[in-house]
Amino acid sequence: MLTRSIQIPQVLHALRRQLFSVHFLLAAVIAVWGVFLVSSPAQAATDSYVRRYLDVKEPISLALDGKGQTKPFSGEDLSFGKELFEAHCLNCHVGGATLPDPTVSLALDTLAGATPPRDNINGIVNFLREPMTYDGSDLSFWCRQVSESWIPQEQIEKLAAFVLRAAQKAPGWGTSNF
Question: Cytochrome c domain: from which residue to which, for each copy (predicted)?
Fold first, then answer.
């Protein structure tokens, strides 16, 4: 009987030491971190600007062409498009304005009035692949030509989706009143 009473504290001590070991604590931290990471992946990957100003909390459909076809884009897609825009377009298009030619902004009505229209995903992508002047009469030297090898189709569509959604929803986008 005395042997059993001595063994119980020893087992409890070994168990307590194991529960508070570095390995156990590290595993617990990783498990808790994983739960938080997995619980809201869409919110974590979606840029706060996209959620707040572009009002994208779940996938949205944007005009793919002028024929009524649409394509869904998630908040993550638009966030990636925003990153591309910031990396490659922001120097000339702050807030949807066009610094080299302030009369031609990235506002929705301006995009729609271009020749050919640029108020849909394909229109913006076609412009980026082969930049033309606003009236479509000549090559534009203001924007660089974006080749498929530089930005693949899937990525450039996300960039176009960001521009289109910003033109639809962002306060002050493409206007002189930011």
Answer: 76-167
Torsion region of 95: left, alpha or beta (phi above 0 gives left; psi -120 to 50 gives alpha):
left
Q: Are 77 and 158 in contact (CB under 8 A)?
A: yes
Q: What is the pLDDT along the chain (178 residues), one digit of tens a residue?
A: 555 556 766 765 665 666 555 555 445 556 544 444 443 444 458 999 999 999 999 999 999 999 999 999 999 999 999 999 999 999 999 999 999 999 999 999 999 999 999 999 999 999 999 999 999 999 998 899 999 999 999 999 999 999 999 999 999 999 866 5
Beta strands in the chain (DSSP E): 60-63, 70-73
The alpha carbon dihedral of 165, 166, 172, 174 has a sign of negative
Q: DSSP string covering 74-96, please? A: -HHHHHHHHHHHHHHTTTT-GGG
Compute the C-alpha angle 120/126/131, nearest 5°.
120
Q: Name the CATH code of domain 45-169 (choices 3.40.50.300, 3.40.50.720, 1.10.760.10, 3.30.379.10).
A: 1.10.760.10
* The token pair that represents 142 in the structure block: 């203001």
Question: Which residues, in sequence order, are CB contacts of 122 under 8 Å at separation 6+?
Answer: 64, 65
